[in-house]
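name: query_chain
kind: protein
chains: 1
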Amino acid sequence: MPTTLRADLEQEGPSTSKATVRSHTVFVDRPAAKGGADRGPAGGEYQLVALGGCFSSHLLAAIRAREAPISRVRVAVTGTMDGSPERFTAFTLSVDAVCDDRAVLEKLVLMAERACQVTNTLRQSTPIDVTVHARSASVV
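structure:
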């Protein structure tokens, strides 16, 4: 059954929009160097947040559901832009976590990749590379 999500955007200044999703509000703006007021990330930067946020949410849910001994999860998302018109041509998610069983982390990362709606959407047109870095709990 299809699900519809909604975001409403309203102009807040010459270059700033206020976006509302459910009860959450964020600002979207251009950097000062590009004529903006820098009141929030740019739309393309939010694409990175959307990718990382969706992936992280699914990863944390998988960790919690399996009571896996994994903590301090960090995900760094990068996007490469190129072309004319400019677009994202590649994404990288780098997952770093404290765990003593790298195989368990890798399995849960794969599950999160497969469950993430943003990954599933973007992967149709843009490569997404995911790397895993596991740190031993005894080293931290």
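note: The radius of gyration is 17 Å.
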